[in-house]
Fold:
Amino acid sequence: MKVIIDTDPGLDDAVAILYALNEPRFDVQAITTVAGNIGLDRTTDNALRLASVMAASVPVARGAARPLAGAGLSEEAIHGADGLGGVQLPDPLAEAAPDAVALLAERLMAEPEGSLTILALAPLTNLAQLRRQHPEAFLRLKGIIAMGGNIHEIGNAGPHAEFNLAADPLAADEVFASDVPVTLIPLDVTRKFRASPADLVELRDSGAPAAVTSAALIEAYFTGSARESRPLHDPCVMLLALDPALFGCDAMHLRVDTVEHPGRLIPDETRPAIQVAMRIEAEAVKAMLWKGLSR
Ligand code: RIB
Ligand code: CA
Structure:
């Protein structure tokens, strides 16, 4: 499966990236970064270091430093100032390319139409810019699988919205209004997917670099003496991409509030339907993630 990962690593992004780089069913063509959790320099450096963990020569390209409009948000409180909860990763083996949108357009025009999927783990600024600047390339996408939003769940960027959508609501609204197939994985599903301390022992016992590094990253993702980690939001994107049968999706017609509660999802029958994951086989999904990290 040819994919490009759009990301703001970020502890849960980091586990998702390690899994995708370690899973032979993914052909990761590039990693594009966006400011999101803790600023573009940090997220880009973290993406390069994650590629180093896997000795992967995957191109990394810098994307948007700020949202299409407004100032953006930060999740430093969750991910720490370094974005990785203090977990030390190896130095980057390469430099990042300067322009994520140019790289996305180049890859989309080079690959057969309908063969590339974006795995979107962050605010959707890069994808909205791609659609604005290179509409013909954007429409060659096979699809976009994105973590974001909240349907019945209370938000995590204020009560009405989820971080990835709240950080750039205009970008999300423009991407969801496009004709490219979108599958959205909201907090309603991701909050059901967490790790326990025993799960981390299993990862460490495997000895595999992706698993051992992920155990350290997830350990940093616990809050205090909690019995389980914060939700493993972003890995859900990779796992749904490979095995959608482990998730249950409903078609919804939605627009994104950009005014009253930025990032809130509002039903709007004039919009094209997007698939929204509302159910997850959490234990089977965890077994698949753990297996892919441990190989
Ligand atoms: O709301 C969860 C999302 O915001 C995840 O992508 C996580 O990385 C945070 O950035
Ligand atoms: Ca993220």
Observations:
- The two ends are 18 Å apart (CA to CA).
